[in-house]
Amino acid sequence: MPDQPTFASLGDATDDIEVRLSYRIVELFSEGLYTSPNKAVEELVANSFDAGAQRVHVLLSPNLHDQDASIAVFDDGEGMDHDGLKRHWLIGISNKRELSTRPRGRQQIGKFGIGKLATYVLANRLTHISKCNGKYYSTSMDYRTIDKRVDREVEPKVPIKIALRELTEQQASQAVEPWTGTAAFKAAKMVLFGTKSTESWTLCIMSSLKPKVHEIKQGTLGWVLRTALPLRPDFGIFLNGQRLESSKEGKGLLDRKILGKDLIRLPRPSPRTPPRPKTSTFPKPANIASASKSPVSAESPATPRRTRISLPASRTRSGVVTASSSMSMDDYSTSTTAISASHPTS
Fold first, then answer.
1. Which of 62, 185, 223, 292 has the fewest Cβ atoms nearer than 10 Å?
2. Is 263 within 8 Å of 269 (Cβ atoms)?
3. Is the model's pLDDT at 320 over the cut of 50?
C-alpha cells in the first residue's frame, strides 16, 4: 500500500475509527448512483451546506493529470471533533434529520450517510482536516485498503481501521498549506489560524485521483453546482476563487399561471347528509305486455290489482329491469312473464 501523504500523516493518532465498508458497497455506488464525476464534488458541497457553512471553496489543481493533483472542498461550517469524525464514517447511518437544533436552521440535504462514497469514483484517498472547539483533527481513508477478493457480500466481515489524529495548530497549518496557499484561496481573505481565525472549518481532500477525474470540466462543474444546490444569501460557493451565482438569481417572477377556476369558497369534502336516491319509475305493465310475444291486456278483468308492494329498482348485467318500484303482485307476475318472453335465457 502506498505511503500516506504528509497532509494525511501529521499529528498524533489518538484513536482508530472502524469503518464497515465492503468493496461490494462501493462497487454498487460507483456503477449505479455516482457515475458522474461532478456528483462527487456536489455531495461534498452538500455536506458543507448541512454543516451550516456560509462560504464553500472548491479548489481544483490546475492540471488534474499531475500525479499530485487533488480536488479540495473547504467550508466554514461546523467542524468535526473526535466523535463527529466517528459519526461521519458510519456508513448508511446519519443523525442529520434527528438533530434538535439544525445548523442555521437549514433543512438537511443528506440523510443516509452515503454521500461521501461518491468520492470513490474520483479518488483513491479521502482526507478530512477539521477545526472544532479550538482543536484540530484529521482522518484519511484509503479506498485501496478495501478487500477486493471474490466475496460478493455487502456486509464486510472485517472493518477497515483508519487513524483518528489530533494536530497542533502548527501541524494543521502545514497540512492545509498546499490549498490555502493558492491564489484562489488567498483572494477569499479567510483567516484559519490565530486569534482572528474562523471559529470552525473543515477541509475535505480527494487525492490519488483516478482517470475518471479527467472528465471534469470546470464550466460543467460550475453549472452543476449553481443549479443543483440551494445558493442563497447565507450560502455562497466559490469555484477556484470565482463566486458562483444561482441559475435563478436575478430572474424574479417569470410568469404566473392559473390552472382552473379560482375558488372563492372551498366546497365541503362531502355533504353532511347523503341525498336520498331517486325513485325509478317503472313503465306501465301494459307497455311491457305490448312488447312481449304474448301480450297481456292491463284492462283484463283476469288481472285485478291487489296488494301493493315496493321493490327497489335494479338492473341485470344486460340492463333489463327486474322489479318495479311500485306494483301489485299480479302486475309483478305479468311483468316477469313479459320480460322472460322478451329475453329468453340461453
1. 62
2. no
3. no
